[in-house]
Amino acid sequence: MMKGNKKKQDLYWYVLIVLLILIPFIPQVAANSFTQHVLILILLYASMSQAWNIIGGYCGQVSFGHSVFFGIGAYGAGMAVVRFGLPPWPGIILGALLATAVAILISYPCFKLKGHYFAIATFAIVEIFNRLFMVWYWVNGALGLDYPLVEVGWRNFMWYTTKIPYYYGALVLFIIIFGIVRFIEKNRFGYYLRAVREDQETAEATGINSTMVKLSAMALSAFLAAFCGAFFVQYNLRVDPTMVMSLQVSMVFVLVTILGGAGTLFGPLLGAMILIPLQEYTRVLWGGLGRGTDLILFGFLIILIMVRQPKGIMGLVDEYFNYKKMRKVISAESDIKY
Amino acid sequence: MIYFLKKFSLILLTFILVFTLLSGVVLAQEKVIKIGTLFPLTGSCALAGSRCKAAVETAVEVINNAHPECDVPLAAQEGILGGYKIVLVHADHQGKPDIAKTEAERLFNQEKVYAIVGCYNSACTNPASFVAERQGKIFMCGCSSSAALTERGLKYFFRMAPTDKTESIEFCDVMEWMNEVKGTNLHTIGIIYENTEFGKHAADEGKLAAAEAGFEVIADVPFSPGATNMNSEVQTLKAKNPDVVFGACLGGDYTLWVRTMKQMDWLPKMCLNYCTGYQDPVIAQQLGDDGNYFMGGTGYSPEFADLMPAVAAVENIYKTKIGPSVPFDSDSIQEAVATFILAQAIEKAGTLDYDKVSETLYANEWDSPLSMGGKVAFVPGGQNAKAMSMMTQLQGGEYKRVYPPELATHDIIFPMIPWNQR
Questions:
Q1: Of the candidates A143, A277, A290, which has its C-beta nearest B18's C-beta?
Q2: Which of A145, A316, B154, B276 has its CA 20 to 30 A from that of A200?
Q3: B390 near B297, Cβ under 8 Å?
Q4: Distance between CA atoms of B408 and B307, rounded to whole angstroms?
Q5: What is the pTM (predicted TM-score) of this model?
Q6: Closest CA of chain B from A97, distance in Å
């Protein structure tokens, strides 16, 4: 029975991937580069948030410092292209490795703190790195790195007139990150993560090395977040510290995941599917009015969702279907009575 | 899992519906040229962005309708190219470069605008104008002042305002003139700037100009824009005590900087500001007496009425859009100039072909009664070679012309009056 369920779940996952592969062939999407942009952002933000979900959702360590790893990844690609005139690929790998190393170095002492104190420490780390990059001459400080006009194509991972390759690039990132988390979820490491989240002392009593589990989760999370940063810079063709290493960016990681449902596989995707179109289309529809109407509405909707269901959209969806299921059971019981 | 699939399908279908509806919106118009505006309409520079937007709307109002009371090109006729009206599509970049790029792409690809006017923040103008260049479309920049923007060798980018470079040279000219004529013995400089593309460029140009003129920069003070406290920055300036301070503080940061200097009871002998909060008449009004005796390069102020007589009639229309008590300022007026120049170029080229309009923009010297000096002409890279500003000093809450001497109406009050003697 379990084996049958697993096969079914695999099938759904592959169907989802095939659907995502086919989306650009829908005429409305193919003809509208803004829709493509929104889809790219959904995939990117879902991937970013999934990376955060490993440490924040599954392991329960709320980190507000992920923009640092995202930023290091972005600067890795940016430096390769702008400073060294290379394709971004070596910079992407180096950036991801560096982000992992930084994550381990800063997390080790921070993991001695618990709950709110850990979150506050990660806040401070963002500010430290932001200031550092602002004044670091080698990475062009506050001026940031502006991409030169280079040959388009996969070698430079850069296109000027089409967004379709970016969409597929984001999709690959999405499949890799969601694939990894899907694997972890069913793996022993996934159970360790959830055990540490639920009760660290009990987990340790059962022989789990909680420090090692948290460090491994943070390292993996940072490594994947750095890849997302590299994609972000290749897509925007510019990077500066405020764009990538700020509390605002860190909040995106947390917000999307919590909105969708932290500690669930599809929560980040659902969060991104709600948040990104809302953010982009409210700006398009009302941003030009210049009264911040889009931002007011955006904030209001987030408050509404979170007040209604703190477990996020996944919680709302579960609530709805549980209710329907219960109604079915009640009606079946009623049938038996009569 | 079957439940999940049902839920997921429901959400997916909703989104496909929303996408379809939104992407299907088409605006059917005839004899219309759509122009996009891209300014910070929310965020810390929202006030300035709104004024820039209103300035472009004013220019379009004059271009589209006969306004015989306005003595500016195209005011006497209705529309351009034999009756084409300009329709504006507004967008907000929130002061963020990535959003500026996205919105520029959307304006060109979805809204099908012919050109974009913007973006106020240099950091946003940079990626947005790259989008235009890659698509071979025109980007008109009014007031973004980073000199680097016109050093990129772009073909379709045109900027009206003077750059940080020209302003820095002008600052040093004023200092030299003061030393020669008034014997002020100014020698040391402090630079305070927001740590962004704009501020950093301004500071770099300031240092270069100072080195060339033989002045010494003894304080280099960057700060994060949107700061809530500038005590440490002002403390650094106070400790170094430079003769002159060059300031690059936008909007609310400028107010905070001035008030913190008052709180710490310190002033340099002279304070020269790039195109920032100093030039904002609303901020000057808010600061009241505290804003007095600061100086800066100014492209326009109501006190320049005798030098730029054509502005008044256009300004009356502008005031109907932004508020009766808000006149043009140095930044917003440049956005109106950008719109007028683009319309003149299209009219002269007699076509909307991008290459021909771009060539026409480069090939001619344009009448621009809203610009100081009255002319606009572009050099390769898109910089307006005729861009001028004048040094003003706030005296009694009004921008008084103080330099160059041949155009000055008032003497520079030197040194700045200490806080406790005001």
A1: A277
A2: A316
A3: yes
A4: 11
A5: 0.82
A6: 25
Nearest CA in chain A to B49: A290
Q: Which residue has the tokens 């296109």?
A: A159
> Does B178 share its domain with B127?
no
Q: Give the total number of structural domains in chain B.
A: 2
Cα–Cα dist B365/B385, whole Å? 10
Helices (H), B350-397: 354-363
Residue B17 falls inside a structural domain:
no
User: What residue has token string 């069913």?
Assistant: A186
Q: How far apart are CA A73 and CA A232, in angstroms?
A: 9
CA distance A238 to A153: 17
| B57 and B199 belong to one structural domain | no
What SS3 class is residue B366? strand
Same domain, yes or no: B215 and B311:
no
Tell me if B197 and A284 make a contact (CB, 8 A cut-off). Answer: no
Decide if B1 is inside a domain: no
B195 and B94 fall within a common domain: no
Structure tokens at B208: 């270069």
**Pairs of residues, one from chain A and one from chain B, whose beta carbons lie less than 8 Å apart:** 138
Could you give the CA distance from residue B66 to residue A124 in angstroms, rounded to a whole number? 58
Q: Report the distance separating Cα A136 and Cα A128, nearest Å.
A: 12
- Beta-carbon contacts of A61 under 8 Å, excluding residues fewer than 6 positions away, are A55, A111, A118, A214, A217, A218
* ipTM of model: 0.80
| Domain of B353, in residue numbers | 32-162+307-384
Half-sphere exposure of A52 toward its Cβ, with a 13 Å CA cutoff?
Answer: 34
Judge whether B139 lies within some domain. Answer: yes
Q: How many CA atoms lie within 13 A of B336 on its CB side?
A: 31
CB contact under 8 A, A240 and B22: no
pLDDT tens for chain B, residues 1 to 422? 555 555 555 555 555 555 544 544 444 446 899 999 999 998 878 888 999 999 999 999 999 999 999 999 999 999 999 889 999 999 999 888 999 999 999 999 999 999 999 999 888 999 999 999 989 999 999 999 888 899 888 999 999 999 999 999 999 999 999 999 999 999 999 999 988 878 888 999 999 999 999 999 999 999 988 778 999 999 999 999 999 999 999 888 999 999 999 999 999 999 999 988 898 888 898 999 999 999 999 888 888 888 899 999 999 999 999 988 888 988 999 999 999 999 999 999 999 999 999 999 999 999 999 998 899 999 999 999 999 888 999 999 999 999 999 889 999 999 999 999 98
CATH at B284: 3.40.50.2300
Burial of residue A10 (CB within 10 Å: 0-12, 13-18, 19+) is exposed
d(CA B376, CA B368): 6
- From the list A12, A34, A243, the residue facing B106 with the nearest CB is A34
Q: Regarding beta strands B366-367 and B383-384, do their DSSP bridges make them parallel or antiparallel, or are they unpaired?
A: unpaired
Residue contact B19–A144, C-beta within 8 A: no
Residue B326 C-alpha from the chain's centroid: 16
Contact: A12, B196; criterion CB under 8 Å: no
CA distances from A298 to A226, A286, A290 (A): 27, 11, 15
